[in-house]
Amino acid sequence: MEGAGGRSGRVGNGPVPGGRVSAGPARGGLGSAARAWRLPELIDAGMYVVDDRGLIVAVNAEAERLVGRRTADLLGRNAHELLHRDSRGESIPSIRCMVKQAFLSGRTLQSELAWFERGDGSLLPLAWTVAPCELAPGERGAVVIFHQVDPAASPGPWAADAEGPLSELDRLALLAETTTTLTSTLDVQEILRQLVRLVVPLLADWAVVDLLTEEGGVARQVVVHHENGGLVHHEDLERAMPPVPEASSMPLSRALRGVTAALAGPETYRGQPDSALAVVQQELFQATGMHSASIAPIRGVRETVGALTLGRASRPDAFTRSELLLVEDIARRAGLALDNARLYERQRRVAETMQRHLLPQLPSVPGLRMTACYRPAPRASQVGGDWYDAFPLPGGATALVIGDVVGHDLDAAAGMAQVCNMLRAFAGGQDDPPHAIVDRLDQAVTRMVQPVMATMVLARLEPGPSGRWTLRWTNAGHPPPLLVEHGGRARYLEDGHGLLLGTGLRAPRPEAAVELPPGSTLLLYTDGLIESPSRILDEGLDRLAAYAAGLAERPLDSLCDLLLSGVRPGDNDDDVAMLVLRVPR
Fold first, then answer.
1. pLDDT by residue (tens digit) across 7-42?
2. What's the rounded Cα separation, in Å, for the pair 225 and 240?
3. CA dist., res. 8 & res. 579, Å (int)
4. pLDDT digits over 179-226, tens only?
5. Which of 54, 395, 546, 579 could join 388 in a cystine, given CB atoms 3.0 to 4.6 angstroms apart?
6. 3-state secondary structure (DSSP) of residue 80
7. Rounded (10°) CA dihedral 64, 96, 195, 202
8. With 0-12 CB in 10 A as exposed, 13-18 as middle and 19+ as buried, what is 423?
9. CB count, 10 Å around CB of 555?
10. Which pTM does this prediction carry?
11. End-to-end alpha-carbon separation of the chain, Å?
């Protein structure tokens, strides 16, 4: 691939290679950069435009014909992932995408031979030019012009395949993508997966990650080999490791102590091992057949996190000192990402522990079965305001409570604890109906030092003389309870609905009552079980009712887990609390 100096064109307002491009009316659904550009129809060349994320925002008719794909199938798609392939038809690491390199260098780049994948899976040999441009003020993009060529007649240079030496531009792109990719998640396993994907097979055919545990030990978390075009985990080599020796001069020991990166090979470990860790490394080289390896410390902000070993077995070339510096730089970036992820996990564990200690133990109510559960937000590191409660009332009745204080932070958790304690105090003092208790609670909430807003359902459950159970409740802006009868009929208890707590508005609080049939199941839940940013609330309610109806006969102990796995939307980033009650037949 060769680069030629050139100025960026401005799409729609200035010249670009091959002609002028002007903006048409906006096209919805493809993001802010996905406008309907009117591209010139070149005689024998395809042309498309991508935004700064690599998404196609415009395409001409000749490009449609050459790649065998309709415009509708191209717009909004990542051009590199969709089209760019090597001579074997395999995906190319994104760092070797010429569009990305044009962005990084700010220059027009050309290649005399590359390949796109057509819509039918065949390969299109082509020559192409990529020029950075400006889609709109402050909005960068690139124009790609390409035409079909004969590979046998092309003098090269050929576009780089997945393996081979890296140019300086390749290295710059790799480090940029490493930073962007690894810092986009706070999940340790996802960071490790992405780290391996970035360096194998680009730099090596083996990748090994050893991490220091919080208890001071070492765990070999990842051993991955590039085999037959894919990545294969060797779980037999992933295991707990011996402790790090303080005096060992072996490369892995020094890396795990955060000393330095080093090159290694089988000869490094042929002598008498100086530690149990060296013995394990000796076995690793024998099992993998690596003839050359780069071993670099993975350093966090405060301490060493682990070590990254990249090895070559099938590739004949050995690691160079220059490549070792690159591996060390990649490991440093991985260390910052892993350090952040570990800190996040510690905060998450503390938050979950705190939240669970704020939640009560359920009472034993003769003649009833009851269970409850709480699940924290999937991607939140802070405590939330969801809670459930159940406690005895004067006169032999039982209070059932489900609630949600607005917010996902320590203030919400503190507010939840105060509301919960005040509710118990108001309910336990005298035998009042639910609406009167919640009305007093609402007045108290507005007088708190830090006022909160909350939704909740307070229900009073009491046995009748015939052995039937009566549920009397009031609802303060909360999703309605769900009653599932023994035969599977499900219905929401939508009566008794009033204002949420903390608004400062005074209005009569309604109350409703229902007799619970024998064998029925009552479900109180928070909105994290049903809400999704991608669909309306009614869809979530319908899904919950349909799913719960099919679980009418399932044991109560497993009901919460089944509802969470079957109903909770995958894109919901909220806590979930549930309280489930079943009346025996």
1. 334 344 333 433 334 443 333 334 434 455 678 888
2. 19
3. 61
4. 988 988 888 999 999 999 999 998 999 999 999 998 889 999 999 999
5. 579
6. helix
7. 120
8. buried
9. 11
10. 0.56
11. 76
